[in-house]
Amino acid sequence: MGIVQIAGVIDRQEAEMLAASGVDWLGFPFRLALHREDLPEAEAARIIRALEPPQEAVLITYLDRAGAIVALCRELGVRKVQLHGPIDVAELSTVRALDPGLFVMKSLVVRPGNERELAGDAAAYRPYVDAFLTDTYDPATGATGATGKTHDWAVSRRLVEIAGRPVILAGGLHPGNVGRAIREVRPAGVDAHTGVEGADGRKDGTAVRDFVREAREAFRSL
Question: What is the mean pLDDT of residues 148-175?
Answer without folding.
Answer: 96
